[in-house]
Design goal:
This protein has 472 residues and is of the alpha/beta class. The chain has two domains: 38-185, Rossmann fold, CATH 3.40.50; 189-380 and 415-472, 3-Layer(aba) Sandwich (Rossmann fold), CATH 3.40.50. It is built from 16 helices and twelve strands. The strands form two sheets. Strands 9-8-7-6-10-11-12 form a seven-stranded mixed sheet, with helices on both faces.
Length: 472
């Protein structure tokens, strides 16, 4: 490899260029797809609780306008910089394309650590940031729709929608200006766990592919697979929880304060309760502490799920990683050097650009709900239940036997909003995995799954540009 120490955006560009070589698109189209269309850097003053004035640095990047609105989360982190936000916006474009969500990619970031900040300070920063976006027309249900990311959640999204609605009175679709909102503010059931659930669906589909598992020397299915999860935030916790419920064994967990392992298995909920009580996952009863939090990445396991920040696995530690499958739940957790090492060793990397697309997929469902002004299931739930009850009653009459009450309850149940959201997410992730796998298997010269995913994304975005007649 000719270059090491890529910046995050350079790493995304490197992966793009690697995949572009396997497409037949005009260089001009490829150049347009690759570039960030709009980069907005802002600085604004906010008065803090102690009376001091702080100048806050923040960003919003719209990577692609091939489809609108643009879509992408807002993160609060002291590490936020323009390169990172550009890279994350680019990944959003490719991610949305792969999972067939009709958005262009975007991302936002505010250079502030939420730790040690009061809720009032964070609210003032969030509302001022939203006002700056409104001022430059960088937010709106048909323009650019933010969502939660690292350091943000439902609370911050509620502040954003409230600020937007106050500045755009009478806009009927205003609730669709942001997703990841509380249910009471137009949010959708299932959004909180969506990214982790999408990771679970994606890895489960991979593990059910007999040819892929045979090549890795693993049995099919998730049951009994030893899994390590780095990051116990929203994504990491829900990923670990769904894997555990499916019969996999969580052998190690890592967080910023340290990491723990137990090869007989860790109960994710018990570890979380321990952390709430002690402010740390360390010294969990029955588990062994690792010397460093990154050591957990190098322990024996079948599947490693990095679900924290980018570039945690690089050219230095990748050779010591023993997992046979890496599921990128975080954005950009592997550097290009790590990718090269895993490819050479036959480790399967399931890339972030579609594996963690559960969040944007369910955000899309929330946006549609906001535009339609009706919750999922409201129109059909009772009708479906009444139909199912009729069918079960007829079966009982014909057979002369009573259906077990537990089975009856399941059989007659009409779909609630969360049932429909889970079903839509499962369908999306299964299709995405199979589409990328199909591309990879039918192009033997493509070296890895990440490159295949980029090829799929590039093809879809390029088709949109040419079909619009932008490039005659």
């Amino acid at each position: 490899m000719s270059k090491t120490n890529y910046s995050f955006f350079e790493a995304v560009e490197h992966n793009f260029d690697k995949a572009a070589a396997f497409t037949k698109w005009d260089k001009g189209i490829l150049a347009q797809i690759k570039e960030c269309n709009s980069v907005y850097q802002m600085k604004f003053p906010v008065k803090m609780d102690d009376g001091s004035i702080e100048v806050i640095e923040a960003y919003r990047v719209q990577h692609s306008h091939h489809k609108t609105p643009c879509k992408g989360g807002i993160r609060f982190s002291i590490e936020v910089n323009q390169d990172e936000v550009m890279a994350l916006a680019a990944l959003m474009t490719y991610k949305c394309a792969i999972v067939n969500v009709p958005f262009g990619g975007a991302k936002g970031g505010i250079k502030i650590s939420p730790r040690g900040r009061s809720a009032y300070e964070l609210e003032k920063v969030t509302r001022r940031y939203t006002a700056e976006l409104v001022k430059k027309n960088f937010i709106g249900p048909g323009i650019d729709v933010p969502a939660p990311d690292y350091g943000t959640g439902e609370r911050e999204m509620a502040w954003i929608v409230d600020t937007y609605q106050s500045l755009r009175p009478g806009e009927i679709d205003a609730a669709g200006c942001v997703t990841g909102k509380p249910i009471s503010q137009g949010g959708v059931n299932g959004r909180r766990e969506a990214t982790g659930l999408g990771v679970f669906y994606g890895i489960r589909e991979i593990c059910n592919m007999a040819d892929v598992m045979a090549k890795l020397g693993l049995t099919t299915g998730l049951k009994g697979k030893k899994i390590i999860v780095q990051g116990l935030g929203n994504v990491g916790y829900h990923s670990a929880k769904f894997f555990q419920d499916a019969g996999a064994i969580i052998v190690a967990l890592a967080e910023y304060e340290g990491s723990i392992y137990n090869y007989d298995g860790l109960d994710v909920d018990a570890v979380l309760a321990h952390r709430k009580a002690t402010k740390s996952i360390l010294n969990f009863p029955g588990a062994t502490n690792c010397a460093n939090n990154a050591d957990a990445l190098e322990l024996e396991c079948d599947i490693l799920i990095p679900a924290a920040l980018e570039s945690v696995i690089n050219g230095d530690n990748a050779p010591r990683v023993k997992a046979k499958i890496i599921g990128e739940a975080a954005n950009g957790p592997l550097t290009p050097e790590a990718d090269e090492d895993f490819n050479n060793r036959g480790v399967l990397v399931v890339p972030d650009m579609f594996l963690n697309a559960g969040g944007v997929t369910v955000s899309y469902f929330e946006w549609l709900k906001n535009l339609s002004h009706v919750r999922y299931g409201r129109l059909e739930k009772r009708f479906q239940e009444n139909q199912n009850i009729t069918i079960v009653n007829q079966l009982e009459e014909l057979t002369g036997k009573k259906v077990d009450e537990k089975i009856r309850k399941t059989a007659v149940h009409g779909p609630d909003e969360i049932d429909l959201v889970y079903s839509g997410l499962e369908e999306t992730m299964i299709n995405a995995v199979n589409e990328v796998m199909h591309c990879w298997k039918n192009n033997p010269s493509i070296p890895d799954m990440r490159t295949a995913a980029y090829v799929v994304a590039i093809d879809k975005v390029a088709h949109t540009y040419t079909e619009l007649g932008i490039f005659p």
